[in-house]
Specification:
3 helices; alpha+beta; globular
Length: 74
Amino acid sequence: MTTVKVLIDSIQKVKEFSSIIARWNVECELVDGPRILDAKSIMGIFSLNLSKPLELRIHSDNANLVESIRKFIV
């Protein structure tokens, strides 16, 4: 499992992030305090506090997936 911090603080970034994550056949979760949700759920992402970095848990060690979201990693 890989864990990174991501910042997706605008509507356009949420759409782009969700689109990239949805292409991968890997379980991914976004963590905001006690809340954990599917990172592929665009509606779920919009329910989070997007003004601060979120923890992204990727249930894979695929470096290509991490590279595809490099612009969101803080």
